[in-house]
Design goal:
The chain is α+β, with helices and mostly antiparallel strands and 512 residues long. The protein folds into 2 domains: 229 residues, D-Maltodextrin-Binding Protein, domain 2 (3-Layer(aba) Sandwich); 209 residues, Dipeptide-binding Protein, domain 3, CATH 3.10.105. It has a 10-stranded mixed beta sheet with strand order 13-14-15-4-16-21-17-20-18-19, sandwiched between helices. Strands 2-8-9-11-10 form a 5-stranded antiparallel beta sheet. Strands 1-3 form a two-stranded antiparallel sheet.
Length: 512
């Protein structure tokens, strides 16, 4: 065990278990190929641009490292920081950096890199974090101190989980030399794998970084290949052209389950899916009427779609917030009741339904979106599906250029407050409009140190979200992956709640 150094005489020290470096192992060998369900975007190479969804961490866990991050058996594992401590008044956090940790170009990871990474961070919750943090101080090359304007109990949830990319560290000297664009073309990190090549949108090739502090990876080369077509992904797995494929649905998931040598890997994750009524704040839109939003909720048979597409592995929780998150409130269910949906539409002035325009979605959720559209159309809500590649979808979502409906997802970690900050409260990156009562409660809870009072406020926010029918929650996704016969350890499910393979230094091929 190792504890942090005292900040001053009265310090509350958090005792952190250090992940030990194992004995020397054989040199990395072989290649492992992933068939990825989305196009790969270079913006995901830079932790500073992490947009409040989980997808970028698929790459960050390989290329980069964080001071603290979720790891197997530890939701906030010491990584580039070997320990940290908190002052009694909650105004100062000090991190002790791990001796010997280096970037792929050989430069040591220092407190200056930590300060630089935080100050250039512009992803999800950046504004909130900059408002809360008064200063980041380099104590010495191996220690960095965060000072707050007021106590902030959520700091480590934002900084040390996958809620944001703010705690993932980039090399200051290299980045200042090549610039943001140059960094995306040739990223340098401190993770277990270094960048080799990238065919934009198509294929990322990585190679083991043997001096990685935790342990040398087992597999020499990782290849992440974008294969948006699900049938092609499964065919690649069957032919041995891929070792792991992400996102199989419906009949293809069943086919993988029946195929000798393949292993279906349903992975429980913290990814909630929901429909967003983007125009509910426009008085001219049908979605401004709560009865229309309720009609959409009653129109959809979520469990039938769950059984058909995710083989029943998804969990219907009726919330945009994962049930495992701190401060979660369980909403009541919306009954599947198409007759009630039609009645609500008639009461709202649409007895024959209406043309609802576009439903925008990430291309990887098009099958799910299409299934739901069938139920909406059956009650008179006529919608056209408009899929986009994931990076393009979330860029448009953030830039507030989408209209009508969107199929929203988030697999980012955190708690109920963080999910509300990103998707519900005024000023959030994906917020098209808000309500004064919710905004007031959100501001109030953010400074509340009494846990019970804070919980009551966050529960009330979630009750208001439900009462206003702001969204149509779908489910917590049961992500169905599959692996081939060469794989000894896929990395799937090792980190609780995480969607993809990680940590990459743990993946293994048979015979290793």
């Amino acid at each position: 065990m190792k504890t942090g150094r005292g900040l001053f005489a009265a310090v509350l020290v958090l005792v952190i278990s250090v992940i030990g470096v194992g004995p020397a192992t054989a040199a990395p060998e072989g290649q492992m190929m992933w068939g990825v369900h989305i196009s790969l975007a270079p913006t995901w190479f830079d932790p500073a641009e992490t947009p409040g969804i989980g997808t970028p961490f698929m790459i960050l866990y390989a290329l980069h490292d964080a001071l603290v991050k979720p790891m197997p058996g530890n939701a906030m594992a010491p990584s580039l920081a070997e320990s940290w401590s908190v002052s009694k008044d909650g105004l100062v956090y000090e991190f002790v950096l791990r001796a010997g940790a280096r970037f792929h170009n050989g430069e040591p990871v220092t407190a200056d890199d930590v300060k630089f990474s935080f100050e250039r961070y512009r992803g999800a919750a950046a504004r909130l974090m900059k408002e809360k943090v008064a200063a980041v101080e380099v104590v010495d090359p191996g220690r960095v101190r965060f000072r707050f304007r007021e106590p902030w109990p959520d700091f480590m949830t934002y900084y040390g989980s996958l809620a944001t990319g703010a705690g993932w560290i980039v090399p200051r000297k290299y980045l200042e030399k090549v610039g943001d664009d140059g960094f995306k073309k040739a990223p340098v990190g401190a993770g277990p794998y270094r960048f080799v090549s990238f065919n934009p949108g198509v294929e990322l090739v990585l190679e083991a970084y043997e001096p990685y502090w935790r342990k040398s990876p087992s597999v020499k080369r990782l290849v992440l290949k974008a294969v948006p077509d699900e049938t092609t992904r499964l065919a690649m797995l069957k032919r041995g052209e891929a070792d792991i494929v992400y996102l199989l649905q419906s009949e293809l998931a069943e086919e993988a389950r029946r195929t000798a040598g393949l292993t279906l890997r349903p992975t429980p994750i913290v990814s909630t899916h929901w429909l967003v009524f983007l125009d509910q704040w426009d008085p001219k839109s049908p979605w401004a009427d709560r009865r229309v939003r309720l009609a959409a909720n009653h129109a959809m048979n979520r469990q039938a779609v769950n059984e058909a597409i995710t083989l029943g592995f998804s969990r219907i929780t009726w919330s945009i917030i994962p049930a495992s998150f701190d401060f979660y409130w369980q909403p009541p269910a919306y009954a599947y009741d198409p007759a009630r949906a039609k009645q609500l539409l008639a009461e709202a002035g649409y007895p024959r339904g209406f043309d609802a325009g576009d439903l925008w979605c990430d291309a990887a959720t098009a099958t799910m979106s299409e299934a739901l559209i069938g139920y909406l159309q059956a009650v008179g809500i006529r919608v056209k599906l408009r899929p986009l590649e994931r990076a393009a979808f979330f860029k448009a979502y953030q830039e507030k250029t989408l209209r009508n409906l969107a199929y929203s997802i988030s697999g980012a970690f955190g708690n109920a407050a963080i999910r509300v900050e990103n998707f519900v409260a005024s000023g959030g990156p994906y917020v098209y409009g808000s309500y004064p009562d919710i905004d007031g409660l959100f501001r109030e809870q953010s400074g509340e140190l009494d846990r019970k009072r804070r919980e009551a406020m966050l529960h009330r926010i979630q009750q208001l979200i439900h009462e206003k029918a702001m969204y149509a929650p779908i489910w917590e996704l049961g992500f169905i992956h599959a692996q081939g016969p060469r794989v000894a350890e896929s990395g799937l499910g090792l980190i609780t709640g995480w969607a993809f393979s990680a940590p990459y230094e743990d993946v293994k091929l048979k015979g290793k």
